[in-house]
């Protein structure tokens, strides 16, 4: 070993860190931001999961297909996936869904199998 090499036991000048320490590990603001981001991610995940559940129940698709439906509706309407999921949950609670989103949702669900959206006009 190099006689001048620093080891974990080597005393360090004040303000320096060990080689495996990361800067800002103890920064309370950074930790608070990270906690807030994790909370938002968990909430978003729950909203999306609920909307997938609605697709499974109402659209008679698999959970994987329910995810694909949400993703495609998001892409075709240029609305963030979480916002689409929120709209679908509101639709389930209040029966309201913007016409453009409803049209894309119906079309997308039709791709994945025989479906009938409650309140939709009968097929012609």
From TrEMBL:
Ranges for domain ANTAR: 28-89
InterPro entries: ANTAR, CheY-like_superfamily, WH-like_DNA-bd_sf
Entry superkingdom: Bacteria
PROSITE patterns hit by this protein: ANTAR
Region Disordered, residue ranges: 1-29
Designated name of the protein: ANTAR domain-containing protein
Organism: Streptomyces siamensis
């Amino acid at each position: 070993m190099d006689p001048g090499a620093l080891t974990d036991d080597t005393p360090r000048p004040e303000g320096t860190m060990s080689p495996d320490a990361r800067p800002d590990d103890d920064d309370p603001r950074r930790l608070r931001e990270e906690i807030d981001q994790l909370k938002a991610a968990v909430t978003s995940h729950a909203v999306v999961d609920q909307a997938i559940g609605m697709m499974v129940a109402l659209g008679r698709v698999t959970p994987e297909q329910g995810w694909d439906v949400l993703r495609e509706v998001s892409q075709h309407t240029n609305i963030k996936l979480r916002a689409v999921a929120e709209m679908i949950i509101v639709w389930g609670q209040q029966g309201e869904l913007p016409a453009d989103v409803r049209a894309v949702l119906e079309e997308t669900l039709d791709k994945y199998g025989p479906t009938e959206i409650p309140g939709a006009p009968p097929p012609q």
